[in-house]
Here is the input.
Amino acid sequence: MARVLIVGASKGIGFETTLQALAAGHQVRAFARSAPRIKADQRLEIVKGNALKAADLDAAVEGVDVVIQTLGIGLSDMIGPVRLFSDSTRHLVAAMQKHGVRRLISVTGFGAGESRSSINLLQYGPFVLVFGRAYDDKSRQEKLIKESGLDWTIARPGVLTNGHKTREYRVLVDKKEWRNGLVSREDVADFLVREIDDRSLIGKAPVLIY
Here is the structure.
């Protein structure tokens, strides 16, 4: 089993990934500002830290095999400039390179990077108005990951729901198939945990939807 660092582990996709990685038998280091709220498990190491602080990430990365990055922000954080995703990724990549940790699995979203061109015309205007700043930064995040030289996989989920894990989601690697759709946080977590051992999608950034 792998030693896995989950960045952004206290809620949302990160919390679900923490639970599922533990259930799969992995040793998990849960990193978040509110990480101490996570229920303890003998294979769970809780690390309180700020993803925008290089020293915090440097300490968290040391000694792990795989890093899963699952950062998110609320709607209120999208009003002004957004730099969380790119700034934290810059620190994370540097820490991984320093400590020789190769495997990075990161969550961005449908609309980041080259997937933005697959948004249909009716959705494009509202998407840019509401999510534009955040996804501009997610695009910068993806660029940093792709230029890192690490063994990366980027997951681009569609619209997130609170549904249960079904394992019936689609993993769309081919750009011609990319489109928006629903997918639960639990199913995104299922994909991320599977990627811990699966190396077939290294260097790929699939869209996840039902």
Q: What stands out?
A: Residues 3-209 form a domain with the Rossmann fold fold (CATH 3.40.50.720). DSSP finds five helices and ten strands in the chain. The beta strands are 3-7, 27-32, 44-48, 66-69, 103-107, 151-157, 159-161, 170-172, 182-184, 207-209.
